[in-house]
User: Which sequence fits this backbone?
């Protein structure tokens, strides 16, 4: 257990959920962007709040811990911690959040806060919880952010690498090995609300489309585990979600086409968008892909950010 | 190229399609039962038939090569062979089929004939076609048998082991590594026509069920490739096809329950049934599972056969 009052520093990576064909089940972490946090624990008197949140960025996210995703995740952890200690351990957390992952960009900004907070808290308390427990706690943050307890950003944020959420109830995360992959992300500065991106989906799908989709999912998992880049590329196809959601993202089809012509293995919408990601075999290709993204969005005058990065294998890290 | 008139012997394994959650995409070959064939090639005069089929079993399957699955597969191969030779190679095949896999049992009887025939023909001709080509030819046999050009039995029969049909058009087969698995199969002596088993399926599925299914497919592929038996077992769950098709098979739910209680990892309907398969970690468990199957079907007075076998890694073999 880290001594009371001693600050630790935390680095929580951005994540790409869905991974094209793996809607709600696949995701991976990236090395850039990431959130930074500082955190400490102290003993708590019975009339004190158990969580204090200090935002040191400019996004003006709620500091009321019941409305803040990190707060909701920490409450879930604290409740279980105090139950484990039979109510004899009254503690409180202070957390400073420097959000470098823009909220609403579709690369797991809320997941980074939730996951970073519970991994940090667990470290302070002597790592008493498993990674599966931490995912479970952090999912309470996702519920605040999007109304749904989903784990497809939380899981890769905590485990690092590529993760499969085989089942939500009961929760089962499977870490999937992957070869070196370079990731290019573009964030067009438009707003796509996760709840809107969910509500436009059809609740029924054609069996023949579902079969195509599970062929691609199986192909993607096999490709990652065999380090077969071409198989990964061919499997990055989504016949169910992308055709519906991509209409919310300006220039999507053209962008995807140009990125693949520039050598990308494939890619698609990151989470529920608006960010788009592409996977490439080399850094040079990932940079050529970034150039295509910049050119396209400059030509239509859409403000945007890009990142060229790699898959993050570590997940949330305690850096100090 | 094998000299003209010289007979070769062929062994073509039974196969289990779907593998519970992988409807139309996954399948594996088993070491028992299997079909035996003999085959030779000869030069052909222009007025002679190019394929002669001799059945040496008692099933009275058609010997007209246009109506016989092996014949249809061989026609497809011959057409491409003669085109490759610019029409200068006129040859004919004679094939004797000893069917040991009962037609209609749901363990790839038609696939074994089609796949065995084209692998044999390819061997006679000096192995000029790839395995992917052979799958393509053999699918013509499946079209005769069930009306649909599916590859989920053909692929494991030709490749051996566990296979993924990532895509049918264009055809892409991915061989999946798997750990040692013991297989118990029970064939209750009832008739389930593949076309009936297809027609009762709903053409639309709930998105939430599709998501569960692709979690399990990804889990099964990862479990096979990681040799994680528990993950394989947990992933052998089908929320879409089995609930509909299992009503065609007497005692299905009870049988599955008892087999799992006896230690099976999991299992389900083989192909479109009526056979049921179970996977186990050891031979002892596979035999205990067989005992449960026998007891249940004896108690309800249903004639049946059982097999205790293992996954066949070789696919169709030339034995002489």
Assistant:
């Amino acid at each position: 257990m880290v001594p009371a009052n001693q600050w630790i520093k935390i680095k929580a990576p951005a994540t790409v959920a869905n991974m094209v064909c793996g809607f709600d089940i696949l995701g991976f972490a990236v090395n850039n962007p990431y959130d930074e946090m500082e955190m400490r624990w102290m003993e708590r008197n019975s009339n004190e709040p158990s969580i204090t949140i200090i935002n040191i960025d400019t996004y003006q996210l709620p500091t009321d811990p019941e409305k803040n995703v990190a707060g909701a995740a920490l409450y879930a952890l604290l409740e279980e911690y105090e139950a484990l200690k039979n109510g004899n351990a009254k503690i409180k957390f202070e957390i400073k959040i420097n959000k470098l992952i823009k909220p609403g960009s579709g690369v797991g900004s809320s997941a980074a806060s939730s996951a970073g907070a519970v991994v940090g808290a667990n470290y302070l308390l002597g790592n008493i919880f498993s990674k599966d427990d931490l995912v479970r706690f952090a999912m309470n943050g996702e519920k605040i952010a999007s109304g749904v307890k989903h784990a497809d950003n939380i899981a890769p944020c905590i485990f690092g690498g590529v993760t499969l959420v085989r089942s939500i109830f009961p929760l089962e995360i499977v870490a999937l090995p992957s070869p070196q992959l370079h990731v290019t992300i573009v964030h067009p500065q438009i707003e796509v609300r996760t709840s809107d991106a969910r509500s436009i989906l059809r609740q029924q799908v054609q069996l023949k489309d579902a079969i195509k989709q599970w062929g691609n999912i199986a192909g993607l998992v096999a490709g990652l585990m065999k380090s077969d880049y071409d198989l990964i590329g061919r499997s990055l196809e989504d016949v169910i979600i992308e055709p519906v959601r991509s209409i919310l993202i300006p220039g999507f089809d053209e962008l995807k086409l140009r990125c693949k012509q520039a050598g990308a293995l494939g890619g698609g919408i990151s989470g529920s968008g608006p960010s788009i990601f592409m996977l490439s075999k080399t850094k040079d290709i990932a940079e050529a892909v970034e150039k295509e993204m910049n050119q396209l969005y400059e030509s239509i005058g859409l403000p945007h950010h890009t990142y060229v990065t790699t898959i993050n294998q570590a997940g949330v890290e305690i850096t100090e």
Observations:
- The domain at 182-310 of chain B is CATH 3.30.70.890 (Alpha-Beta Plaits).
- Chain B touches chain A through 40 residues (CB under 8 Å).
- The CA atoms of residues 122 and 141 of chain B lie 16 Å apart.
